Amino acid sequence: MLKQLHDDSPLFGSNASFVEGLYAAYLQEPLSVSAEWRGYFDALQKGEIPVESGKRPARPAAAAQGLETVREERLLTTERKQIAVLQMINAYRFLGVRHADLDPLQHYDKPHVPELDPGYYGLAEADMNTVFGTGSLFGPPRASLREILQTLHQTYCGKIGVEYMYITDTEQKRWIQNRIEGPRAQPDFEPEYKRHILERLTAAEGLEKYLHTRYVGQKRFSGEGGESMIPLLDNLLQRSGQMGVQQLVIGMAHRGRLNVLVNTLGKLPADLFQEFEGKHAQDLTEGDVKYHQGFSSAVSTPGGIMGLSLAFNPSHLEIVDPVVQGSVRARQHRLQDRDGDLVLPVLLHGDAAYSAQGVVMETLNLSQTRGYGTGGTVHIIINNQIGFTTSDPRDARSTLYCTDVSKMIEAPIFHVNGDDPEAVVMVTEIALDFRMQFHKDVVVDMVCYRTLGHNEQDEPMVTQPLMYKIIGQHPGTRKLYADKLEAEGVIDSGTADRLVKAYRDDMDAGRNPNKTIVYGYKSPNAVDWTPFLKETAWDAKVSTGLPLVELRKLAERLTDIPSKFKLHSRVEKIVSDRRLMGEGKLPLDWGMAETLAYAALLNDGYPIRISGQDSGRGTFFHRHAVLHDQNCERWSEGTYIPLRHIKPDQPDFVIIDSVLSEEAVLAFEYGYATATPDELVMWEAQFGDFANGAQVVIDQFIASGQAKWGRLCGLVMMLPHGYEGQGPEHSSARLERYLQLCAQYNIQVCVPTTPAQMFHLLRRQMVRPLRKPLVIMSPKSLLRHKESVSSLEDLVDGGFRNIISDMEELDPKKVRRLIACSGKVYFDLAAHRRKNKIEDVAIIRIEQLYPFPHDDFQAEVERYPHARDILWCQEEPRNQGAWHRIQHYLLRHKRADQVLGESLRPSSASPAAGYLVKHNEQQNELIVSAFRERI
Locate the Transketolase-like pyrimidine-binding domain: which residues (predicted)? Predict the structure, then answer.
């Protein structure tokens, strides 16, 4: 009778998987199933049996057809229990991680999770030998409840805990289930590979102990307690190489970094020891501490030699994440690796930083976008269960796990006990395979501990006494694993000690025992930066002009729009005007000059990448690099990009309306630019002050990257700047901050005032054999200013002018004052002079504020021999803008008989006035003051 019951019930046999799928969907969203099934599941959930006139309960017709009537009560009871079993399987997939054995310290009690108790579903000891359908649970289609529970507990509550049921894609969930439930989350490696894991653990522990005894008290941010990270990375490198990955880029903070440098990337211990002893010759301007340094090497894998790069990073922890993504995207672009099969990003995180720092979320958000995706990242969290000196997870995050932020992109999460290196390696293999299969981010959360304090001078017992009592008694991962292998007969007694001694002998000799490292390897895909290493290139005179015939030809390509493409009326007028500009019938505006610069660079063979929150159109409706068909909104069909049609087989032109982020996007573009010197890489802020949200990137990478790490970068930042009465948040790009960062010829800061200047400036950035970051204070109202225009002929000869001399017909001998300024204020000064017919004041524009053009400015001073004073005029308040930096240059060049003056807004805590009337009053006063006689 029981067999007949199983055969007849819609919840058994061939229907089981179907019903389970419906039931799983019902549990997540009841409204996703039909009303008939919903009512049925509701009744079973509540234990209510809707019977009509003693007949069997109403059941969905599709399931009821063809079924014979059996004894009602027995059938219903069995069906309820079968549903309960399926529900319990589902619960283990969702919540089994809560009971997983993840903590090597056993520091916290496991929470009570009623959904993992069979009694929660009305299942008792009497049901343990009853055979139920297992649905989609990997294994036999039917098994006893006892066997099902053993399978679930072993799979989801062992040393591995998995979170993945929130993933929408059924194929991805089934893939994970097969990989986890098939082997019941139990590693199975050959003895030879187990010995290799032990050797890597020995190396990880050996380096830390060697440094701890040889360099007592020196900071190194030890990785002790997380030694399984080294066999994890070893497996990841070898397996990814076997799968065809040619380059792997790693980003990580300082915890355990020295261990990765030596034991994974192959840095020679002798070189590391010299750094500890202060003997390492520094070729860099300033250099950086050893646990921030990057490194490049190569390893031999079953798939061939693979290039490795560890990105340089500051102490700002997770800020390196988007930098790595940008570097990877550039490498993929160079290799035409559109799917991300050849270049793999790997990010190592700390648990506290991963959950707390917003740039992590921003970077995750980039992962599946068109402009920033890299085909998926392998995230590895070295989970010390503590952040700096935080003693309680309740003070570190508001989520249950530090990895919960990963769920926003439906990345699967594999938690694993760091004291089980085989389990660590197993989940690493699964994670990598998932990434390569589905090209999505994946997370490995290796739960371990931190043997020492935050650094080697910190005493952790002060704030975590109980945790560190446990840690003090912990034998260490290597010892535990060595004892396990000896008990299994994989190694002989004494083998583990011999490995320890062998590694120490290698350290004494300063050699690296990692046999996979390929020293002296030169990748055929490596970028040659040597043409850009000459600092004398600052003074290189390069011509950035183009013949008139070529400019007109480029203008034709830019304004040749497909006939069936319906433009917006305003855009159609802009394109029509640009056509006339190209014919020399209208003066050039900023949008046309900038676009011609891009076209010319593309024509010369330079790829271009531009990103920003409104880059395609331009925040101020001036660029229109991406045209939109008014009859179609589908991006793939409804857009036309003229700059992609300059010539056959031209380089790529990529322009991206970025996600609403400054920090991650700017860091991404910085990383991209550091990997591709022959591509113009630009980031445009929607308003210049929006760059405030990316200040860490500017300070720690863009301004100081070369001084600290020797990293060249030609990134261009366009920051709209100008005081036009738009209030505190939309006036200043904070020019003063960039000038404060200027030193040792690290960056360029320019304020172009004409379209031709922008044309030549962008061209110079690529044509000149120099790769330094360029910060452009770009215009807003000047984009349409009637006097801020250029002719086509202005693009023919010469190049960018660091200083623009006064164009008024003044007698130099009659000039009593020389006004120096930058940016939009020039046009206000010139208008006032014209209106009041002032003929004894000269105005010059300093278009490059850093490096300051000393020779050019000295020539201007000498041009006016009778000028009694030099005055600096700026729109910004006294405590902002260029004044504090520029006055030192002006003092250097003024004659002894001259006085230095200034005309600017009063010092202010706010960048600009919020009321238009007040703004106009201030603006008028500083213009009038610039011409006023001084006593």
Answer: 588-785
Cβ burial, residue 541 (10 Å; 0-12/13-18/19+):
exposed
> How far apart are the C-alpha atoms of 796 and 547, rounded to whole Å?
6
Burial 317-338 (b: 16+ CB within 10 A, else e): bbbbbbbbbbbbbbbbbbeebe
Among 509, 524, 547, the domain-final residue is: 509
Token pair belonging to 92: 């283990």
CATH code for the domain of 236? 3.40.50.970
Q: Quote the CA–CA distance of 923 and 905 in Å, as a whole number.
A: 8
Q: Which two tokens stand for residue 420?
A: 């089980």
Cα–Cα dist 233/239, whole Å: 10
Give the pLDDT confidence score for residue 151 in this predicted structure.
Answer: 97
- Residue 799 token pair: 């190049």
Q: Are 352 and 396 in contact (CB under 8 A)?
A: yes
Cα Rg, the chain, nearest whole Å: 34
Residues 146-155 have pLDDT tens digits of 999 999 999 9
CA–CA gap between residue 486 and residue 490 (Å, rounded): 6
Of 790, 812, 809, 816, nearest to 801 by C-alpha is 790
**Statement to judge: residues 757 and 826 lie in one domain:** no
The CATH number given to whatever domain includes residue 783 is 3.40.50.12470
Determine the pLDDT at residue 5.
36
If the chain, 935 residues long, is cut into consecutive pieces of 10 residues, what is the mean pLDDT of each piece?
A: 41 54 69 74 62 43 42 65 94 97 91 95 95 94 96 97 97 97 96 97 94 80 90 98 97 90 93 80 57 83 96 90 97 96 97 93 96 97 85 81 96 98 98 98 96 74 84 94 97 96 94 93 87 79 93 96 91 94 95 97 98 92 92 77 95 95 97 96 93 95 92 96 92 96 96 97 96 96 94 93 91 95 97 95 97 96 95 97 96 94 95 92 94 81
CA 318 to chain centroid: 9
Amino acid 615: pLDDT = 93
Q: Is the residue at 853 inside a domain?
A: yes
Residue 653 lies in a domain: yes
Residue 448 token pair: 């371990």
In b/e form, how buried is each residue of 555-569, taking b as 16+ CB within 10 angstroms?
A: bebbbebeeeebbee
Could you tell me the pTM of the whole model? 0.90
Q: Are residues 703 and 780 in the same domain?
A: yes
Given the structure tokens 């993933």, which residue do they identify?
167
User: Which pair of structure tokens corresponds to residue 215?
Assistant: 């360099």
777 domain residue, yes or no: yes
749 and 725 in a single domain? The answer is: yes
Which of 475, 509, 543 represents a domain boundary (last residue)? 509
Long-range contacts of 810-813 (CB under 8 A, 24+ apart): 810/839, 810/840, 810/842, 811/839, 812/842, 812/863, 812/864, 812/865, 813/865, 813/866
Q: Both 731 and 870 in a single domain?
A: no
> Residue 856 is inside which H or E element, if any?
helix 854-863
Helix (H, G, I), strand (E, B) or coil at 557: helix
| Total of domains in the chain | 4
pLDDT of residue 65: 43
pLDDT at position 807: 82
Range of the domain at 116: 2-133
Domain co-membership, 815 together with 784: no
The total of other beta-carbon atoms located within 10 Å of residue 111's CB is 9
**Residue 431 and residue 388 share a domain:** yes
What pairing do the DSSP bridges indicate for beta strands 442-447 and 378-383? parallel
Q: 150 in a domain, yes or no?
A: no
Residue 797's pLDDT is what?
87
Sheet with 716-720, edge to edge strand ranges: 653-657, 608-612, 680-684, 716-720, 774-778, 748-750, 848-850
CA dihedral 541, 547, 548, 554 (to 10 degrees): -100
Q: Which helix (H) or strand (E) holds 307?
A: strand 304-310
Same-domain pairing of 780 and 843 = no
> What is each CA distance from 623 to 241, 428, 599, 655, 790, in whole angstroms?
43, 46, 13, 11, 16
